[in-house]
Amino acid sequence: MKRNATAVWNGSGKEGNGTVSTQSTVLTGAQYSYKSRFEEGVGTNPEELIAAAHAGCFSMKLSFVLGAAGFTPDKIETSCDITLEAGAVITSDIKVTASVPGITAEKFLECANDAKANCPISKLLNCNITLQATLA
């Protein structure tokens, strides 16, 4: 399986601007710029997209891990904060809250740690990944 996206950048790093588009067309010409990346400008940025990818990938992997352990989650809600410092992503902080009938807190944490270690985006990232897991 292959997926793709395209980025187009126009101009200098600080004054320029760009767009990103995805194969699925969920993003089509989504704008990004220095301001949207390093300040509070309108548009997306690579770190925000990584955070979304990590949260989505982790949630789906956790659902599979829970299923393999005999549990069906009612809801998994995951947020992810990516920290960019000195030109490198240094942390990905995952916070997950889930409603999983019949599971103990210990088993849920075990499954969440498995998902953290084994989701494809976790395996891709070369940074410290933290996890805060809570049962609803």
Gist?
With 136 residues, the chain is of the alpha+beta class. The chain has helices at residues 34-38, 46-68, 105-118, 120-124, and strands at 5-10, 17-22, 30-33, 75-85, 88-99, 128-135.
Please tell me about this protein's structure.
By secondary structure, this protein is of the alpha+beta class. It has 2 domains: 5-38, no CATH class; 46-135, K homology (KH) domain (GMP Synthetase, Chain A, domain 3), CATH 3.30.300.20. Helix content is 35%, strand content 35%. It is built from 4 helices and 6 strands. The N and C termini lie far apart (35 Å).
CATH class designation of the largest domain: Alpha Beta
Oligomer: single chain
CATH-level-4 superfamily name of the largest domain = K homology (KH) domain
Number of helices: 4
- What is the number of E strands? 6
Helix vs. strand class: alpha+beta
Shape: elongated
Q: Walk across the major sheet and give the strand order.
A: 1-2-3
Number of domains: 2
Give helix % range. Answer: 25-40%
What is the CATH topology assignment of the largest domain? Answer: GMP Synthetase, Chain A, domain 3
Q: What's the SSE blueprint?
A:
Elements: E1 5-10, E2 17-22, E3 30-33, H1 34-38, H2 46-68, E4 75-85, E5 88-99, H3 105-118, H4 120-124, E6 128-135
Parallel strand pairs: 5-6
Antiparallel strand pairs: 1-2, 2-3, 4-5
Helix pairs in contact: 2-3
